[in-house]
Amino acid sequence: ANLLGADLSEANLSGANLSGADLSWANLSGADLSQANLSRANLSLANLSQADLSGANLLGADLSEANLSGANLSRANLSEANLLQANLLGADLSGAILPGFQIPQEGALVVWKKLRHDVLAKLLIPIEAPRTGSLVGRKCRAAYAEVLLLENLTGSVTEGVSQRDAAFCYVQGQRVTPAAYDPDPREECLPGIHFFLSKEEAQAYE
Question: Which of 30, 71, 131, 164 is the most buried (most CB within 10 A)?
Answer without folding.
Answer: 71
